[in-house]
Amino acid sequence: MKLKYDGKVIGTITTNHNMSIEDAIELLEVNVDDYADYELFTMGWSGYDLSREDAQKLGRITTRDEAGTHFTQIYDTEWLSKMETVGYIQINRPTHQTGIPYGQEEWTVEVTPEGIEAGEEMNWGEED
To answer: Which pTM value belongs to this model?
Structure first.
């Protein structure tokens, strides 16, 4: 995984599981006082090989397609989870003020800057 500050890699950790930013900062012995805004720290997987099909899906994914079909009905859960884990998409799962999560039909999705960068590098899966 890569620990980034304001989009720049400041450290890499080899692991096969998710890790919090706090854990990464501790493992990499980063002095957070050297950085002005803690909110600019992000984590992302390194070394994921985006397939042509993945890039095509990233180029098409929206919360609802033109027919009104929700993304959770279009893309399989495993693919969504993988893309979210590697940091290429962000799924927003709102919670009611009572603390009860809303159903999937209320979820939204967006491609992250990392996902856009990866998709663009592969020309969104289109052949040259």
So the answer is: 0.65
